């Protein structure tokens, strides 16, 4: 039998099979067997349900079913009060997703311009992985760079609009999930990020995906772009970090007339009206918008597709 041994039994192709837990005494003269209650694990079962009977009922409500998978890593929050059960939670998660080899817990909030959260390994080893997304490959160290795997479909929506020969600008480019697809479609891309680790991984990903000849990668502050990049871009893709909306002021000056801007931001719904007004004040027309995720109660990520008049 092959698979992953653990508290829940043995994992083979996503199915958890309950087996006895075998313990040896230190003298190796006596074999003791602890029978684990029968569990036939259903991969579609929620994380909370899979841990029923392991985490007490009065504590399991603290656990969220939300987690992020990047490559073969899973990243989740383990709230105060559940630290003693973090191994059980990690094993349940590995059992639920057979591609996961390492489970990381967030040990701090995202901080700084790099949007990095402190991470701690619960099970497995290391924070380097390779993430596959719609045929593209992205290598990274999640402890060094920001990456959101939940935006894969959104990134492909934008990439589908890119035409061969376009000049595309990507501020806050990270390891390249907006950059690589645009370059693969024949665009000439300028990618900017002030995190040197992100740029180092971006260079690897450009080579990995065969588009290094079409991308100029710059390690600098996105707000300084007008100082070192020629304007007149056909398309600007802006995965704006939280609280960096002032980047909007420099975007029209970098975009040709009739050019497209895909602007991502985080807002409560009651601030959308004033944001739409600011688009008009900057000579931009919004042609489409939608929500694409949330970061906190009442605050969602929005994308606005804009055209420069």
């Amino acid at each position: 039998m092959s698979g992953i041994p653990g508290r829940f039994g043995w994992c083979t192709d996503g199915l958890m099979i309950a087996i006895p837990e075998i313990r040896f005494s230190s003298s190796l003269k006596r074999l003791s067997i602890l029978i684990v209650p029968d569990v036939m694990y259903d991969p579609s079962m929620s994380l909370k349900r899979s841990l029923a009977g392991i985490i007490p009922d009065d504590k399991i409500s603290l656990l969220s079913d939300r987690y992020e998978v990047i490559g073969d890593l899973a990243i989740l929050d383990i709230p105060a009060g559940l630290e003693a059960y973090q191994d059980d939670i990690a094993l349940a998660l590995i059992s639920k997703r057979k591609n996961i080899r390492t489970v990381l817990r967030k040990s701090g909030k995202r901080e700084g311009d790099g949007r990095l959260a402190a991470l701690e390994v619960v099970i497995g080893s290391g924070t380097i992985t390779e993430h596959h997304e719609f045929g593209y490959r992205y290598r990274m160290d999640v402890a060094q760079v920001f990456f959101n795997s939940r935006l894969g479909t959104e990134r492909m929506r934008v990439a589908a609009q890119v035409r061969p020969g376009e000049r595309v600008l990507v501020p806050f480019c990270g390891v390249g999930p907006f950059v690589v697809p645009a370059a693969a479609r024949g665009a000439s891309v300028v990618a900017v990020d002030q995190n040197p680790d992100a740029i180092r991984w971006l260079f690897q990903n450009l080579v990995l995906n065969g588009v290094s000849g079409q991308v100029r990668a710059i390690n600098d502050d996105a707000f300084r772009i007008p100082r070192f990049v020629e304007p007149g871009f056909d398309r600007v893709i802006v995965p704006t970090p939280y609280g960096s909306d002032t980047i909007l002021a420099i975007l029209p000056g970098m975009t040709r007339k009739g050019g497209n801007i895909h602007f991502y931001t985080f807002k409560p719904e009651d601030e959308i009206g004033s944001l739409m007004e600011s688009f008009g004040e900057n000579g931009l027309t919004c042609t489409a918008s939608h929500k694409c995720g949330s970061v906190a109660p009442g605050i969602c990520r929005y994308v606005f597709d804009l055209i420069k008049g």
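The longest helix spans residues 196-208. The chain has nine helices and 18 strands.
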